[in-house]
Specification:
The protein has 298 residues and is of the alpha/beta class. 41% of the residues lie in helices and 21% in strands. It folds into two domains: 85 residues, Orthogonal Bundle (Arc Repressor Mutant, subunit A), CATH 1.10.10; 209 residues, D-Maltodextrin-Binding Protein, domain 2. Strands 3, 4, 5, 6, 9, 10 and 11 form a seven-stranded mixed sheet that branches. It has a two-stranded antiparallel sheet with strand order 1-2.
Length: 298
Protein backbone atom coordinates (compact mmCIF):
# COMPACT_ATOMS: atom_id res chain seq x y z
CA UNK A 1 0.00 0.00 0.00
CA UNK A 2 1.50 3.30 -1.10
CA UNK A 3 0.81 6.84 0.08
CA UNK A 4 0.02 7.87 -3.48
CA UNK A 5 -2.70 5.23 -3.67
CA UNK A 6 -4.24 6.61 -0.48
CA UNK A 7 -4.05 10.19 -1.74
CA UNK A 8 -5.73 9.17 -5.00
CA UNK A 9 -8.40 7.28 -3.05
CA UNK A 10 -9.28 10.39 -1.01
CA UNK A 11 -9.68 12.52 -4.15
CA UNK A 12 -11.87 9.87 -5.81
CA UNK A 13 -14.04 9.75 -2.68
CA UNK A 14 -14.41 13.53 -2.74
CA UNK A 15 -15.18 13.79 -6.46
CA UNK A 16 -17.33 10.63 -6.63
CA UNK A 17 -16.32 10.45 -10.27
CA UNK A 18 -13.19 8.93 -11.79
CA UNK A 19 -13.03 11.37 -14.70
CA UNK A 20 -13.24 14.44 -12.44
CA UNK A 21 -10.75 12.92 -10.00
CA UNK A 22 -8.28 12.19 -12.82
CA UNK A 23 -8.57 15.79 -14.04
CA UNK A 24 -7.92 17.17 -10.57
CA UNK A 25 -4.93 14.91 -10.06
CA UNK A 26 -3.59 15.50 -13.59
CA UNK A 27 -3.32 11.80 -14.28
CA UNK A 28 -5.00 9.60 -16.88
CA UNK A 29 -8.27 7.92 -15.95
CA UNK A 30 -6.96 4.40 -16.74
CA UNK A 31 -3.98 5.02 -14.45
CA UNK A 32 -6.29 6.20 -11.67
CA UNK A 33 -8.55 3.18 -12.14
CA UNK A 34 -5.58 0.83 -11.86
CA UNK A 35 -4.49 2.53 -8.65
CA UNK A 36 -7.97 2.15 -7.14
CA UNK A 37 -8.29 -1.49 -8.20
CA UNK A 38 -4.84 -2.26 -6.74
CA UNK A 39 -5.88 -0.72 -3.42
CA UNK A 40 -9.16 -2.67 -3.39
CA UNK A 41 -7.33 -5.89 -4.23
CA UNK A 42 -4.92 -5.32 -1.35
CA UNK A 43 -7.77 -4.61 1.07
CA UNK A 44 -9.79 -7.54 -0.27
CA UNK A 45 -13.01 -5.58 -0.88
CA UNK A 46 -14.60 -2.98 -3.11
CA UNK A 47 -14.65 0.53 -1.65
CA UNK A 48 -17.22 2.16 -3.96
CA UNK A 49 -20.67 1.34 -5.33
CA UNK A 50 -21.72 2.66 -8.72
CA UNK A 51 -24.74 4.99 -8.75
CA UNK A 52 -25.54 6.09 -12.27
CA UNK A 53 -22.46 7.77 -13.72
CA UNK A 54 -20.96 8.34 -10.31
CA UNK A 55 -19.38 6.15 -7.67
CA UNK A 56 -20.04 6.52 -3.94
CA UNK A 57 -18.31 5.09 -0.91
CA UNK A 58 -19.82 1.94 0.55
CA UNK A 59 -19.48 0.96 4.22
CA UNK A 60 -16.01 -0.50 3.72
CA UNK A 61 -15.02 2.61 1.77
CA UNK A 62 -16.13 4.94 4.56
CA UNK A 63 -14.04 3.02 7.09
CA UNK A 64 -11.09 3.08 4.69
CA UNK A 65 -11.51 6.84 4.14
CA UNK A 66 -11.56 7.58 7.87
CA UNK A 67 -8.38 5.59 8.44
CA UNK A 68 -6.71 7.01 5.33
CA UNK A 69 -7.34 10.60 6.39
CA UNK A 70 -5.68 9.78 9.71
CA UNK A 71 -2.66 8.28 7.97
CA UNK A 72 -2.27 11.24 5.62
CA UNK A 73 -2.64 13.68 8.49
CA UNK A 74 0.11 11.84 10.38
CA UNK A 75 2.29 11.96 7.28
CA UNK A 76 1.80 15.72 7.02
CA UNK A 77 2.69 16.04 10.69
CA UNK A 78 5.91 14.10 10.12
CA UNK A 79 6.81 16.38 7.21
CA UNK A 80 6.12 19.49 9.27
CA UNK A 81 8.11 18.18 12.23
CA UNK A 82 11.09 17.30 10.05
CA UNK A 83 10.91 20.68 8.33
CA UNK A 84 10.85 22.42 11.70
CA UNK A 85 13.74 20.26 12.91
CA UNK A 86 15.88 21.12 9.89
CA UNK A 87 15.21 24.85 10.12
CA UNK A 88 15.09 25.34 13.89
CA UNK A 89 17.79 27.87 14.74
CA UNK A 90 17.65 27.26 18.50
CA UNK A 91 19.43 23.93 18.47
CA UNK A 92 22.50 22.20 19.85
CA UNK A 93 25.49 20.93 17.91
CA UNK A 94 27.37 18.01 19.45
CA UNK A 95 30.94 18.41 18.18
CA UNK A 96 33.85 16.05 18.80
CA UNK A 97 37.44 16.85 17.85
CA UNK A 98 39.88 14.09 18.87
CA UNK A 99 42.72 16.20 17.40
CA UNK A 100 43.30 19.94 17.87
CA UNK A 101 42.14 22.28 15.09
CA UNK A 102 45.13 24.59 15.31
CA UNK A 103 43.30 27.05 17.51
CA UNK A 104 40.13 25.49 18.87
CA UNK A 105 39.11 28.53 20.88
CA UNK A 106 39.16 31.05 18.03
CA UNK A 107 37.38 28.63 15.69
CA UNK A 108 34.54 28.03 18.13
CA UNK A 109 34.36 31.66 19.25
CA UNK A 110 34.05 32.73 15.63
CA UNK A 111 31.10 30.40 15.12
CA UNK A 112 29.36 31.56 18.30
CA UNK A 113 29.70 35.17 17.20
CA UNK A 114 27.88 34.36 13.97
CA UNK A 115 25.28 32.08 15.57
CA UNK A 116 24.85 33.13 19.22
CA UNK A 117 21.62 31.12 19.66
CA UNK A 118 23.22 27.78 18.79
CA UNK A 119 24.24 25.69 21.80
CA UNK A 120 27.66 24.08 21.28
CA UNK A 121 28.53 20.91 23.18
CA UNK A 122 32.21 20.15 22.55
CA UNK A 123 34.32 17.09 23.29
CA UNK A 124 38.05 17.47 22.61
CA UNK A 125 41.24 15.45 22.29
CA UNK A 126 41.38 15.29 26.10
CA UNK A 127 38.61 12.67 26.09
CA UNK A 128 38.37 9.37 24.25
CA UNK A 129 35.54 8.66 21.83
CA UNK A 130 34.03 6.06 24.16
CA UNK A 131 34.10 8.56 27.03
CA UNK A 132 32.48 11.15 24.82
CA UNK A 133 29.71 8.75 23.80
CA UNK A 134 28.72 8.45 27.46
CA UNK A 135 28.00 12.20 27.43
CA UNK A 136 26.65 12.74 23.92
CA UNK A 137 26.67 11.26 20.43
CA UNK A 138 28.55 13.59 18.05
CA UNK A 139 26.61 15.28 15.25
CA UNK A 140 29.88 16.13 13.54
CA UNK A 141 33.51 15.16 14.15
CA UNK A 142 36.80 16.73 13.05
CA UNK A 143 39.70 14.29 12.80
CA UNK A 144 42.98 13.60 11.02
CA UNK A 145 43.84 10.38 9.21
CA UNK A 146 46.95 9.00 7.48
CA UNK A 147 44.72 7.42 4.81
CA UNK A 148 42.16 8.70 2.31
CA UNK A 149 38.54 7.87 3.16
CA UNK A 150 35.83 7.37 0.52
CA UNK A 151 32.80 6.98 2.78
CA UNK A 152 29.82 9.18 1.80
CA UNK A 153 29.58 10.71 5.28
CA UNK A 154 33.24 11.83 5.27
CA UNK A 155 34.39 15.17 3.85
CA UNK A 156 38.09 15.86 3.28
CA UNK A 157 38.92 19.45 4.18
CA UNK A 158 42.57 19.29 3.11
CA UNK A 159 45.90 17.86 4.15
CA UNK A 160 48.83 18.78 6.38
CA UNK A 161 52.52 17.87 6.36
CA UNK A 162 54.54 16.54 9.27
CA UNK A 163 57.28 19.12 9.92
CA UNK A 164 60.12 19.70 12.36
CA UNK A 165 59.20 22.02 15.23
CA UNK A 166 62.15 23.81 16.85
CA UNK A 167 62.53 26.67 19.29
CA UNK A 168 63.35 30.10 17.87
CA UNK A 169 66.37 29.86 20.18
CA UNK A 170 67.64 26.84 18.24
CA UNK A 171 69.99 27.47 15.26
CA UNK A 172 67.89 25.04 13.20
CA UNK A 173 65.08 27.62 13.23
CA UNK A 174 67.01 29.60 10.60
CA UNK A 175 66.95 26.71 8.11
CA UNK A 176 64.55 26.78 5.16
CA UNK A 177 64.39 22.98 5.28
CA UNK A 178 66.19 20.15 7.04
CA UNK A 179 66.89 16.47 6.49
CA UNK A 180 65.53 14.25 9.24
CA UNK A 181 68.49 11.92 8.71
CA UNK A 182 70.80 14.72 9.91
CA UNK A 183 69.04 15.05 13.27
CA UNK A 184 70.07 11.78 14.91
CA UNK A 185 72.03 13.60 17.63
CA UNK A 186 69.29 16.10 18.52
CA UNK A 187 67.22 15.71 21.70
CA UNK A 188 63.54 15.05 20.89
CA UNK A 189 60.26 15.40 22.69
CA UNK A 190 57.81 12.64 21.88
CA UNK A 191 54.17 11.70 22.05
CA UNK A 192 52.89 8.66 23.87
CA UNK A 193 51.73 5.79 21.60
CA UNK A 194 48.80 6.55 19.30
CA UNK A 195 48.05 7.11 15.61
CA UNK A 196 50.29 10.16 15.20
CA UNK A 197 53.01 8.45 17.24
CA UNK A 198 52.96 5.55 14.78
CA UNK A 199 53.33 7.91 11.81
CA UNK A 200 56.28 9.69 13.42
CA UNK A 201 57.95 6.44 14.47
CA UNK A 202 57.79 5.27 10.84
CA UNK A 203 59.67 8.44 9.86
CA UNK A 204 62.45 7.77 12.37
CA UNK A 205 62.65 4.21 11.10
CA UNK A 206 63.01 5.43 7.51
CA UNK A 207 65.64 7.96 8.64
CA UNK A 208 67.62 5.10 10.15
CA UNK A 209 67.89 6.18 13.77
CA UNK A 210 66.18 5.89 17.13
CA UNK A 211 65.56 9.38 18.52
CA UNK A 212 67.09 10.57 21.77
CA UNK A 213 63.80 11.24 23.58
CA UNK A 214 64.15 13.52 26.60
CA UNK A 215 60.43 14.13 27.28
CA UNK A 216 57.34 12.05 26.52
CA UNK A 217 54.11 14.05 26.63
CA UNK A 218 50.70 13.24 25.19
CA UNK A 219 49.28 16.77 25.39
CA UNK A 220 50.24 18.61 22.22
CA UNK A 221 50.27 22.08 23.83
CA UNK A 222 52.70 21.04 26.57
CA UNK A 223 54.79 19.19 24.01
CA UNK A 224 55.15 22.38 21.98
CA UNK A 225 55.82 24.38 25.17
CA UNK A 226 58.81 22.14 25.89
CA UNK A 227 60.07 22.68 22.36
CA UNK A 228 59.63 26.46 22.71
CA UNK A 229 61.90 26.29 25.78
CA UNK A 230 64.46 24.43 23.63
CA UNK A 231 64.34 21.28 25.72
CA UNK A 232 64.25 19.37 22.43
CA UNK A 233 62.86 19.33 18.90
CA UNK A 234 59.86 17.35 17.71
CA UNK A 235 58.01 16.18 14.63
CA UNK A 236 54.56 17.72 14.50
CA UNK A 237 51.59 18.21 12.14
CA UNK A 238 51.88 21.67 10.59
CA UNK A 239 48.25 22.80 10.88
CA UNK A 240 46.38 21.03 13.66
CA UNK A 241 49.06 21.69 16.29
CA UNK A 242 49.62 25.31 15.39
CA UNK A 243 46.96 26.92 13.25
CA UNK A 244 48.14 30.47 12.65
CA UNK A 245 49.85 30.73 16.04
CA UNK A 246 53.62 30.90 16.40
CA UNK A 247 53.63 29.18 19.83
CA UNK A 248 57.30 30.12 20.23
CA UNK A 249 58.54 27.61 17.66
CA UNK A 250 59.54 27.54 14.02
CA UNK A 251 58.08 24.95 11.66
CA UNK A 252 60.74 23.65 9.31
CA UNK A 253 59.83 21.48 6.27
CA UNK A 254 61.63 18.16 5.90
CA UNK A 255 63.41 17.66 2.59
CA UNK A 256 64.13 13.95 2.76
CA UNK A 257 61.25 12.07 4.42
CA UNK A 258 57.66 13.10 3.91
CA UNK A 259 54.43 12.19 5.66
CA UNK A 260 51.07 13.88 5.61
CA UNK A 261 47.70 13.60 7.29
CA UNK A 262 44.28 14.21 5.76
CA UNK A 263 41.86 16.42 7.68
CA UNK A 264 38.22 15.33 7.70
CA UNK A 265 34.76 16.15 8.90
CA UNK A 266 32.43 13.21 9.39
CA UNK A 267 28.86 12.82 10.60
CA UNK A 268 26.58 9.86 11.36
CA UNK A 269 25.59 7.91 8.26
CA UNK A 270 21.98 8.00 7.03
CA UNK A 271 20.94 10.90 9.26
CA UNK A 272 19.35 14.28 8.58
CA UNK A 273 21.45 17.20 9.81
CA UNK A 274 19.57 19.87 11.67
CA UNK A 275 19.88 23.54 10.78
CA UNK A 276 22.55 24.26 13.40
CA UNK A 277 24.77 21.33 12.40
CA UNK A 278 24.56 22.30 8.73
CA UNK A 279 25.61 25.87 9.61
CA UNK A 280 28.48 24.57 11.75
CA UNK A 281 29.70 22.24 9.00
CA UNK A 282 29.61 25.06 6.45
CA UNK A 283 31.40 27.36 8.89
CA UNK A 284 34.23 24.85 9.40
CA UNK A 285 34.61 24.33 5.64
CA UNK A 286 34.84 28.07 5.07
CA UNK A 287 37.25 28.49 8.00
CA UNK A 288 39.74 25.93 6.70
CA UNK A 289 39.43 27.16 3.12
CA UNK A 290 40.07 30.74 4.19
CA UNK A 291 42.79 30.13 6.78
CA UNK A 292 44.82 27.46 4.99
CA UNK A 293 44.04 27.88 1.31
CA UNK A 294 42.10 24.63 1.04
CA UNK A 295 39.60 24.19 -1.76
CA UNK A 296 37.00 22.02 -0.06
CA UNK A 297 33.39 21.99 -1.26
CA UNK A 298 30.42 19.69 -0.81
Amino acid sequence: MELQQLEYFCVIAECENLTKAAQRLHVSQPSLSRSLHALEDELGTRLFDRVGRNIVLNDAGRIALERTLGVLDSTDTIKRDIEAFIHDKNQAVNFYTPVPMGDNESVLIGFKRQYPDVYLRVGSYNTTYSERLKMFRPDITFFASPIVHREPNYLMLGEEDIVLAVSHKNPLSKCESVALRDLANEPFTSLLPGTLYDIIESMYLEAGFKPNVVIEEQDFARNIAYVAEDFGVTLAPAITWFGKKDRGVARIPLNDIHRKRYLYLKWPENTVMNWATLRFRDYLINHFNTEYGFNCSL
